[in-house]
Amino acid sequence: MVNGIAAWIALALALALQPKPAGELRSDNGSIERSAPELDDLVPSKARIEVLATGFGWSEGPVWIGQGGGYLLFSDVPANRIHRWTATEGASLFLHPSGGTVRAGFREPGANGLKPGGSTSILVADQGNRAIARLDLRTKAKRFLARRFKGKKFNSPNDLAVGPDGSIWFTDPPYGLEGINASPLKEQPVNGVYRLAPDGQVALVESGLRFPNGIAFSRDGATLYVSNSDPARAVILSYQVAADGALSRRRVFSDMTALAWKGLPGLPDGMTVDERGNLWATGPGGVHVFRPDGRELGLISTGAAISNCAFGGSDGRTLFMTSGNKVAAVQTKVRGAPHRLPPVTPRAPSS
Fold first, then answer.
1. Most buried one in 3, 40, 130, 314, CB count within 10 A?
2. Which residues pair with 148 in a beta bridge?
3. How much is the pLDDT for 141?
4. pLDDT value of residue 8
5. Residue 112, phi-psi category: left (phi > 0), alpha (psi -120 to 50), beta (remainder)
6. 344 belongs to a structural domain
């Protein structure tokens, strides 16, 4: 037993003394690995990852609100809460419950993905209410925009993005339900990707993914990105988007399956696009930074799974990352792509 312990100590020391990969910058809060020199144009050479707040069950859906001095909202999905963070006040409770009030049958009843909805509202992927909703930031009143497709309830909407025409696109895996795919509450036969049109009509646009999760549009709105958080097929897909919302030319933008099999923390999940069109996508190991052509430039890691990311801050160049029980940030040289907003006129929930 003593010899075994000594061997483990020797191995740990040997690993600790190994040189770090070229271009990798480490700190106590994570690391930044530069796979290509172009990352220097996006992330400062001396950038460090900063932990902003801790103590959450599973943080998700960061969104920066520019009004009121500027603040970050993010979800704690299992705790059914949305929190608010500012640089001067830290984190505080913003909304509870953030999602459904019925606990039976749900493993994660809270809100998940959050996106800007206008000057006074955000859009919410509401897992517990199995709906897409608009939340008024002042009154905290919620209005449901879509709750069903073909008369059946959604599984548990996870993330969302707004298209060039104001349509709301969202993913609907069963992660919010106890038993996931085996849940008796699951009504939809597929885990789909949907489009909520400005007229309130819902269309199923992708039915062939096991666990669709993060979703984002390219800067010009011509490409849709969807992540599949399936360990057996951990990929990010891209699609060409027609003016009427039809998808074509589906292809694998990035295959991260091998990284998932290596045991790196996380799976393809949330993502965001910067003002230059680069994709910042969570996956095994952290946030992967891609050129629009799919070439990877680097990896930002917190040492834990990262569920989602978003640009914001006083100058718009801070990348906020929700990572397990914490929220972290890193300074960049770019802002996020301009936000698209859906129509604000009232409409009846789609059925």
1. 130
2. 153
3. 97
4. 35
5. alpha
6. no
Q: Domain for residue 341, yes or no?
A: no
Average pLDDT over residues 312-334: 97
Spatial contact of 60 and 73, defined as CB atoms under 8 Å apart: no
Structure tokens at 261: 């099999």
- Three-class SS of residue 221? coil
- Split at pLDDT 50, 70, 90, the class of 4 is very low
Range of the domain at 110: 24-331
Kindly give, in sequence order, each residue whose CB lies less than 8 Å from that of residue 12, ignoring residues fewer than 6 positions away. none
10 assigned to some structural domain: no
Confidence of residue 344 (pLDDT cuts 50, 70, 90): confident
What's the whole-number mean pLDDT along residues 188-214?
A: 97
> Any idea what the CATH number is for the domain that residue 227 is in?
2.120.10.30
Three-state secondary structure of 22-42: CCEEEECCEEEEECCHHHHHC
Domain tally, the chain: 1
- Assess if residue 336 is contained within a domain: no
CA–CA dist 264, 244 (Å, integer): 39
Q: Where are the alpha helices (DSSP H) in the chain?
A: 2-17, 257-261
Beta-carbon contacts of residue 184 (< 8 Å; ≥ 6 apart): 105
Q: What is the DSSP letter of 258?
A: H
Instruction: For residue 192, give both structure tokens.
Output: 């789909």
Statement: residue 318 has pLDDT above 90: yes
Residues 234 and 305: their CA atoms lie apart, in Å, by: 14
Please identify which residue in the block is written with the tokens 């001396």: 46
Q: How many angstroms separate the most distant Cα atoms in the chain?
A: 72
Cβ–Cβ contacts within 10 Å for residue 2, how many?
Answer: 6
- pTM equals 0.91
Is it true that the peptide bond before 97 is cis, omega within 30 degrees of 0?
Answer: yes
